[in-house]
Amino acid sequence: MFEGRRTVAEQAFVSEAVMMAQTNDEAVESAVREHARLIYRIAYSVLRNHHDAEDATQDTFMRVLRYRKRLEGVQDVKMWLARIAWRVAVERGKKRPEISLSEVEMNEAVMQLRSQLASAEESALGNQIAGMLESLITALPEGLRGAMRLSTIAELSSNEIAEILNTNEASVRSRIFRARKILKEKLSALEGSYGSR
Amino acid sequence: MGPDKFATSQKDCIDRWLDSAVVQYGNAEPRTGLECRILANLEKAQCEKISTPWWRAFSISVPAACVVLSIWLGMYRPHQKSPPVPNPHVLGAVNAAFPQNQASSPGHRRPLARRATRHAPPRQHELAVEPRLAQFPSPQPLTEQEQLLERYVRNFPEEARIVAREQTEAEAGKRLEELAMEKSLGVNSD
After folding, report:
1. Nearest-CA distance from A56 to chain B in Å?
2. pTM for the complete prediction?
3. Domain residues for A170?
4. Chain A hits for B26, Cβ within 8 Å
5. ipTM > 0.90 for the complex
6. CA A182, CA A180: separation in Å to the nearest integer?
């Protein structure tokens, strides 16, 4: 009698555990399917390299798998993942050497910028201009840099950026405004200085 | 067009250019099949995690058990009270002088000798590690007097036996006298 009860209880316990594990796995899988692209973009905004960004995305989901039990209690999965991805990318970014443009590359970038400004048409960013923009953003003060990088991701609102950076929305808006102001000043200075040569 | 107007239009130009550049800058597309690759890697990691616990458990528990055992042995061995080990040199000399003692107690010598041989190497090690001796008499080299005694016993066994017997008898007589004295004192005091 007791044996029978125990067997039934064990079976119920095992089936519950299996169900829980399945639920957790399904939650992780759906998180990957829904948010992998956003995670990748967050990582790419920091690392500016496709391979590194993909590795960081992988790393983020590995961490999610490790703490998947917590995933059940998370209300906003997108933001939870975004915060993890941001931390992972920043950690990886610290180990990476900074990108710096050579004089020739900078010259070419400024020439392209001038032609694009003169044509007043929206044209694709070349590698040189993207590199120049990256070096300008990297040169920003640390507080402004993070907000500026995250603001380039279309899926993230300023409220969400604030959540990722653990600050308030007003601060994020202010940081983005200041960062853009600095960038504009530097761009106009670059354009002027290289144009006068 | 005045210089102010030109500067303003240039600023607007840069502003617009920056807007579009920032959008393009952040618009990074991953290689196709990113989700599948991630899911495959996650599955692989999970399979590895499930399939490894037996050897991982062994790899952790066996060295841990060894470490605990060695610590336990190291901690408790010096505290064990080992029986006093007579100096083998003296013991050998005495046994050579008094063979009847061996005959009277044949089972006594063997364990002592065995114990001495069993404990000899660790005791030497302990001596090397710590100067404090755990038991008495210590297995130190023979003193000058002991060496003289050993030589005497070896060269003149008969005399040595007689001397030892007389000494034993004298000690026994002395002990009897002491007992008799104590008895008489006890009676007087009562």
Report:
1. 11
2. 0.56
3. 103-195
4. 41, 45, 149, 151-154
5. no
6. 5
